[in-house]
Amino acid sequence: MHHLHFEKLTPMEPRKELLAKVERIKAILVDRATGGQPSDDEYSQLRQDLASSSLRDVLPRFVLTSRTVREFWGFIQPKFPSYRQRAEFLQKEFEPLLNSLELGEVDEESILVHSDLFKHQFPAGLPFGLKKPSLAVTSQKGLQRTQFETEKGIGVLREGIYPSFTFKQLCERLDVNIHDIVCGFQADL
After folding, report:
1. What pLDDT is recorded for position 174?
2. Is residue 13 pLDDT above 60, yes or no?
């Protein structure tokens, strides 16, 4: 399990400040998802602050990909038909990060399990087919964006691939001692 310990964070990003920023960006997104018209400037500044912080890898993916409130609306509106479903989705996506910030450490594994781990690991998707896919890398507002170009005979897996549990939970369900597995891997090395 990977942890970001807050004593290792730079003085520029104290835990309470990060917690306040995550809570505020969540509130802005919930406002937009339920019909409000929040400030694009405030959202963009918070997004930039969080994307350049130690929390970048554990933020919900849509925060990194939605540069404006309008782009976020384009993501969430077709995904869920009702305000309630949108608000519940946002609660589920932000809850592990907020809980971890309140407790003092960020458990990346549990946060990624609540979001889509596959999308985190393969942001452009995972291509398959008989031909070699073409990958396009573009730059937008200082961030890189990668995507596979659509071609006949090439498919791309994009989301919802992995089951929603951790390696530790898998070992528990299979009644296998995780310590024995880890020690076995180390002995093989």
Report:
1. 72
2. no
